[in-house]
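Final report, section 2: Outcomes. Of the targets proposed, Phenylalanine--tRNA ligase alpha subunit is the one most frequently requested by collaborating groups, and we therefore present its record in full.
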Amino acid sequence: MTDIPTLEQTLLGAVRAAENEAALEALRISALGKKGSVSELLKSLGAMTPEERKEKGPLINGLRDRIAAAIAARREALQEAALAERLAAERVDVSLPVQEGPETRGRIHPISQVIDELTAIFADMGFSVAEGPDIETDFYNFTALNFPVGHPAREMHDTFFFPPDHRGERKLLRTHTSPVQIRTMLGQKPPIRVIIPGRTYRCDSDQTHTPMFHQVEGLVIDRSSNIGHLKWILEEFCKAFFEVDQVKMRFRPSFFPFTEPSAEVDIQCSRKGGEIRFGEGDDWLEILGCGMVHPNVLRNCGLDPDEYQGFAWGMGIDRIAMLKYGMPDLRPFFEADVRWLAHYGFRPLDLPTLAGGLSA
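The predicted structure is given below as tokens.
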């Protein structure tokens, strides 16, 4: 009969020497498989006398249990070593910043963001968005808006005119978004409540002016619209846009050909420390122009000024964007500098809402 202690030492040594799980599995089969050395000893118990079985049985069963335990322990040690080796090979330096994906790396231009903010505010007041062409006729841009012949705004030094067509008429790049007011009044019946954001063009270029810039205008036409409604709308807009609880405004008499009476609107602000803050301080800053729609404009659009009246206002989107977000110069808005956009831009999925915050 096989020497059990010697076999045990041999098998335990082989278990310790197994370098991988494949070698260990082969050893397990050769020892504990159907034809393994330990299994053969177990089979021999059937041919023994009861006295021999009583003596050899515990020795052989103990050998089987110790070999099985040694194999299990060795397998666990090999698995831990393999895992440690894999972790070392796949180790990531977590101190390095995670590279942003394109959906988070991109930025929304401040102008686009502010237009979305304007739309959210006025949509909450019941306004819709109206649009029109950038290339306009003299009628829509000047005549229908009560600009008299010879008005300085019609001159070449202010307006980009195209060469005359075959009829001698010159089209132009619109100098304001007001032509869309005319198109809206001609295209639909009152009541009208629209805002008109868009590009406009004038011959001007410096730190606070560019040849192409953005405006937003508002128009309300109804039977009972009055300047009190205008004042409330502008106050609520300023509180929502500049995200302040209270705001003081003052209306100064002014002149625009398409409104009567006309006013320029100043908003209370503080300029301490070179930073403009709204809703506090003793200074004033002009932000927009407004007024009641001129009766001549209503007549030009086929509306009876004895039956309908309305009001309108307009402001520079670029200017209010600069004021809200602290941008000192208008020109970088149009320079396509990725560094500037990364600093002042907005994340694509951060849509402005009145509930969640316009610029959250």
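The mean pLDDT is 85.
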